[in-house]
Structures are given as C-alpha cells and as structure tokens.
Amino acid sequence: MPPKTRPGSKTAGARPQNIQELAKIAGVSTATVSRALTGAGHLSSATRERIQKLAAELQFKPSMTARNLRIGRTGAIGVVVPLGHERTQHLSDPFFMTLISHVADRLADHGYDVLLSRVVPTDGNWLDRIAQSGRVDGIIVIGQSDQALVLDEAAKSYRPMVVWGSRIEGHAYHTVGSDNRLGGRLATEHLLAQGCRKLAFFGDSNVPEVEERLTGFREAIKAAGEGVAGALLPVHFVPDMALATISEYLGVADGVDGIFAASDTIAMMTIQALAERGRAVPSDVKVVGFDDLEIARHTLPPLTSIRQDLGKGAEALVDTLLALMRDEDAPSVLLTPTLTPRASSAPGA
C-alpha cells in the first residue's frame, strides 16, 4: 500500500505514475529526478538523497522502457545462431550452450539482457530484420554457417555487430574466433606423432571454421611426406546423423588408425561407432576432437581435443561489440588454440 501522508504535504496523494509526476512533487526538473535515480550526471549529494528518499516513500519505480526510449537504447543484445548449413541442429548442442552461457554472463556484467534467436534462413534479409527491429542495441552472431554474404551485406549498414568465427579476407564484419587452421595442424601432428599413418577428417567443410580445420589437417598430412594418407568424410553436427554416417564409413574404411573430428560432439559419436564395431580407442584407432568442452573429460576414454578458450572468446565478443556500439575502432580477434591430450589418442595421456 502507498505510504500514509499528511494532507497538504508534498508526498500526499496517489503514487506518481511517471518521472514527470515525481519531479512535480519534488519541485525539481525531470532531468534532476532522472540523474538522482540513475546515479548519472552531476548532482549534489543532498538533492540526490532527498529525491531517492522521496521515491522510496512513494514506492516509485521508474519505467526502464521509458528510460531506454529516452536514451535511445533497449538494454538488450541480440545473440543469433544462424543454421543455414545444418537446419536440424539445436541450441542444446554443447558448443552452443557453452559459448552462449559465457556470452550471457559477460553481457549481464555490463547490464544487458540477451535476446536469443535460432535462425534457419529462408532469404537474405533475416539479419536485416533483426537489426532493424528496434529490439536490440547490438548483435552477436554465433557462427557464420553458410551466411557470410548475408553477414557482410548487413555489416555495411549496421555497425554494432560481431561474429564468432574465422576471419574471411575482404569481408566487412568484425570477428572473434580461434585460429582453426592452426588447430587442425595441431590435431593432425599429434595423431602423426602417436604413430597414425592412415588418417581421416570428419566434418562439414561448408562451414568456414571447419574448412579451416580441414586445411590444417591437409597441410600436416602433406608435410608428413610419403607413407601417410588422409581422407575426408563429410559429417553432420547433429549427433544421430553423425553416428549413422560414421558407422557406415567405418564399415567400408580399411585400416584407418587416426581420426580428427571437427567437434567434440562428432568425436563422441566416432568413439561410439568404433565401439559398436569392436574397435578399441586408442589401441586400434586414436581420436582427437575440437573445442575441448566439459564433455570431453567425461567420454570413455576421455577425449583428446583442441581447446578453444570460449570464456576468453566470449569476453572478446562482448568487448568488441561494446566498442562498436561506442563507435570506436575494434579490430577482429584471433585466439590461439592449444592441444589437450587425453586417453583417446595415447594410453596414459
């Protein structure tokens, strides 16, 4: 209930419905009330305390929607996951869940809410619609999928946008991501060092990040010289589809002794498919994944993986976006991946 007030006192009457009514009761301007309640701007401590006390007595809570309209912001950031390459993939994918949770935490630290969208593109205007909706102050895109041209076109007219993924030369949008080519080399060189000579790469090279990992894989195979072979198996990120494809491949593949999977999820499906066919990891086939998610520690055997520091990546995504929102220069960020060896590639690792 509203506080009891003395007739004729400044606090008498109904609870103020907006900042203008509170300003009238306090006998000050709306700008003064706004500064007092938000802590922004210059104001004497006595005036600030008086207005804050009055607002508390009247149980007045300012409308954040109205405030955001006045200052031209929504208080929300769009976090968008485009799935042009893999239309049945879900946000429950461990990689998405891990990176999005890090991003949401960093945005919350800066006072922003998250507007999360999973987009299966049907035309080239999907990103423009989000940017022009008036619902977000900026956009973080998780993965380029096969939408690099759409991202590039949007970036020409919409500045506060940053993309998680590989830097593509000549494109206008800002990126934060790992050196996927280096990661591919590290994984393959590790398998070669463990004695593998007939290697396979499992992943969808239509995705720019995976294509870079495949390039690193091929570079390491070529550098190894004669007696080493490498094959490519296109594999979906969706677990059930990946398992079916891998199982079929293992039924006809002869002598593969080292597998580099483009993600930890694909690597998990690889270990399962090998077990179902009676092939032991790592004694018969060694397996390396990519991402080094929490699940990599809990596979049987624990999964060797190329580590992307997603916590650091999320921080860089948010910092880059906030700089762009302030109209500051913000270079793209390239993170250095590292190898985390575990038992899936070497006994006792």
TrEMBL record:
Signal peptide: none
Entry GO MF terms: DNA-binding transcription factor activity; transcription cis-regulatory region binding
Keywords, comma-separated and alphabetical: DNA-binding, Transcription, Transcription regulation
Location of the HTH lacI-type domain: 17-71
InterPro entries for the chain: HTH_LacI, LacI/GalR-like_sensor, Lambda_DNA-bd_dom_sf, Peripla_BP_I
Superkingdom of origin organism: Bacteria
Protein name from the UniProt record: Transcriptional regulator, LacI family
Organism: Caulobacter segnis (strain ATCC 21756 / DSM 7131 / JCM 7823 / NBRC 15250 / LMG 17158 / TK0059)
